[in-house]
Write a structure and sequence with these properties.
The chain has 13 helices and 13 strands. It is of the alpha+beta class and 445 residues long. The chain binds pyridoxal-5'-phosphate. Pyridoxal-5'-phosphate (PLP) binds next to helix 4. Pyridoxal-5'-phosphate is lined by residues 42, 101-103, 106, 135-138, 208, 212-213, 242, 244-245, 270.
């Protein structure tokens, strides 16, 4: 047997470093190389690596019990976590359905939305509308809702629908309009789509409050979500906020949708829920939906063997306590502003940077071949991949968010370090990004 890695990796032909341990914002590989986790992995490790009290909580729960099956028992950590999430969540999102990944959380949201209308005798309402330039997960239901052409392409025959509306991306508006003279044409497009498809066929509308993996921290224009909420109410459609990437304090509010004071009917969480210490995700559901289902079939047709796993719930609960005790939601806001200022300084110096955007510690940088004319790089130039690779060689991990513009072209990356990062560490990140972009700019622009 040869010594090659047997783990199936994203790119079968390339080897990845083996990480031996992590500490704070740093990861270390077996060769002794140090990496700044400038993207918290996939925007996940939001309290940094190796936090002692999370490790203690995991061990303590393991000493009690690591697994019970959700159909046979509930357990105290899952109960406590659900209660804590109902305190964190806006409005009456008082119920938690626990799953293992963000994909499962959005797919469960889809299923609960459809079931809600069935219980009300409106079983025709079974489509979930979504936007282009979105990512809701890789399982088939979640992928059906995702407007990410590269990820859909291979499975199109199995995906039952395409997204129906454009993303609210003002820097590169897909509708070729300019805010505010556009009068939120992207929201009008949602209303037109609903009228065409027929509200009697639509269960919900799902959106990432700030577009992450497929766009690079795209923040919608003011008034967007308030208008979306009004339309959903007008046509009796549930609004599902996919907060898998943006939730749990990442953007400087508990949930990104809180920035607009809008109340979703269902919310999907993952990633930062456990800060990566264990796999757990959740679908939060409003009183109205749960009461309707309880009065009907009284059973939600979803769930997994590892749902509401006590080990994972105990870890997630410890992570939330850590966020609260260290005031990390507010810290994300303060440090995010500092990071954004630094990136904006780079934008003034480096023509390759077209746009800097985001909220809190979810910042995106969009790269342009010519930012005056907003000309993107050709796909084959693989600019995002070069930038991410070079950053890694210089000891910084950033997250690629390419394919945003029309689902194929467009180069962007996310800077989303742990919320525990210090100011001098943010300075170091900005310095390395400057180095990387200077180099790439020389070759590509
Ligand atoms: N939703 C959003 C907004 C995401 O960013 C992601 C992952 O990047 C997912 C869903 C899917 O989550 P997971 O990879 O945990 O299945």
């Amino acid at each position: 047997m040869d010594q090659r890695s047997r783990v199936i990796k994203p790119h079968l032909q390339s080897e990845l470093p083996i990480i031996s341990h992590g500490n704070g914002i740093y990861l270390y590989d077996k060769q002794g190389n140090q990496y700044i986790d400038g993207s918290s992995g996939a925007v996940t490790a939001s309290i940094g690596h190796g936090v002692e009290e999370i490790i203690r909580a995991a061990v303590q729960q393991a000493e009690n019990v690591s697994f019970v099956y959700r159909s046979q028992f509930t357990n105290q950590p899952a109960e406590d976590l659900a209660l804590k999430l109902s305190e964190w969540a806006p409005g009456d999102l008082n119920w938690s359905f626990f799953v293992n990944s963000g994909s499962e959380a959005t797919e469960t949201a889809m299923k609960i939305a459809i079931q809600y209308w069935q219980e009300k005798g409106m079983s025709g309402k079974n489509k979930v509308l979504s936007r282009w330039m979105s990512y809701h997960g890789i399982t088939l239901g979640a992928l059906s809702m995702s407007g990410h052409i590269l990820r859909r392409k291979r499975f199109n025959a199995l995906l039952d629908q395409l997204p129906s509306v454009s993303a609210p991306h003002c820097y590169n508006c897909p509708l070729n309009q300019t805010y505010p003279s556009c009068q939120l044409a992207c929201v009008h497009e949602l209303e037109v789509a609903i009228q065409r498809i027929g509200p009697e066929n639509i269960a919900g509308f799902i959106a990432e409050p700030i577009i992450g993996a497929s766009g690079g921290a795209v923040v919608p224009p003011p008034g967007y979500y308030q208008a979306v909420r009004q339309i959903c109410d007008r046509y009796e459609i549930l609004f599902i906020a996919d907060e898998v990437m943006t939730g749990m304090g990442r953007t400087g509010a508990k949930f990104a949708i809180d920035h607009w004071g809008v109340q979703p009917d269902i919310m999907a969480l993952g990633k930062g829920l456990s800060a990566g210490y264990t796999p757990i995700a959740a679908t939060l559901v409003s009183d109205r939906i749960i009461e309707t289902i309880a009065a009907g079939s009284a059973s939600i047709m979803a769930g997994h063997t590892f749902s509401a796993n006590p080990q994972s719930a105990a870890v997630a609960l410890a992570v939330i306590h850590y966020l609260e005790r260290n005031n990390l939601v507010q810290q994300a806001q303060i440090k995010g502003d500092y990071l954004k200022d630094g990136l904006n300084r780079l934008k003034k110096k480096l023509p390759i940077i077209g746009d800097v955007r985001g909220m809190g510690l979810l910042q995106g940088v969009e790269l342009m071949a010519d930012h005056q004319s907003r000309k993107t790089f050709p796909l084959k130039a693989a600019v995002t991949q070069r930038v991410v690779q070079l950053a890694m060689e210089k000891g910084l991990i950033i997250y690629p968010a390419f394919g945003g513009l029309n689902g194929i072209a467009g180069d962007a990356f996310l800077v989303a370090p742990p919320l525990t990062i210090k100011q001098d560490e943010l300075d170091l990140i900005i310095e390395i990004i400057e180095d990387v972009l200077l180099e790439v700019q020389q070759v590509c622009v």
